[in-house]
Amino acid sequence: MVGVSELDTHPDQNFVKSIKEQMANFTPHKASKTIVDFMATGEVYWNEDCGESRTYLVLEKGSNDLLGFFTLGITSLEWTSVKNSEFWQGLSGKKQKHLSRHMHNKDGFIGVYTIGELARRNDVGRERLPGETLLQEALARILEARQIAGGRFVLVDSRKKLYERLYSKAGFQKVAEKESPNGPDDGIFFISMLPIENLLKSSD
Asked: Keyword annotations for this protein (predicted)?
């Protein structure tokens, strides 16, 4: 695995050239205009330079084939959308109080980590790179960031099917819905959230 931020200072520029070519031609397993544009138009580099997000590339050992990638960042979430969700209402009062204790709720919003993109290349099967592996790698980086800067929640928005197949099984809980960034024909996206303390418990 290599971070996009590491490419400019990498000692092997032939390696860097190969990786950047693969990034420009990256086609995700599930059609997504936002992912294609992110990689092909250079948005990924702009986001790195501006500190908007960090992207990590999963490479196959030996061949350095680009199998997939994920992008991490920080965003804000309207706290009332969490409090009004079925997930939150299903928690005990004690658990609600614990998760929101000393919450810094500025203008009704809270800061959260986000997994902005998570994708496997279209010709890479699950046996070669399971979605669970990509997600585990992303969450591991978030845990590292939490050791330095703190943080309580991870947010992700995804297609309903991906939420049901991947994120819900990892402990994410739906808090809202939104229109797909790929257009209305792509269906509804689920916004889901994971308390980071759940990750700490599972790693014990």
From this structure: Acyltransferase, Transferase
- What 51-55 contacts at long range (C-beta under 8 Å, 24+ apart), as own/partner pairs, is 53/116, 54/3, 54/4, 54/5, 54/141, 55/3, 55/4, 55/117
Are 66 and 23 in contact, with CB atoms under 8 Å apart?
yes
**DSSP letter, residue 30:** S
Q: What is the CATH number of domain 2-203?
A: 3.40.630.30
Q: How many CA atoms does the CB half-sphere of 111 hold within 13 Å?
A: 8
Q: What residue ranges do the domains of the chain occupy?
A: 2-203
Q: Give Cα 10 to chain centroid, integer Å.
A: 25
Helix (H, G, I), strand (E, B) or coil at 48: helix
Structure tokens at 5: 């931020």
Structure confidence by residue, pLDDT tens digits, 62-84: 999 999 999 999 999 888 889 99
Give the Cα separation of 190 and 156 in Å (integer): 8
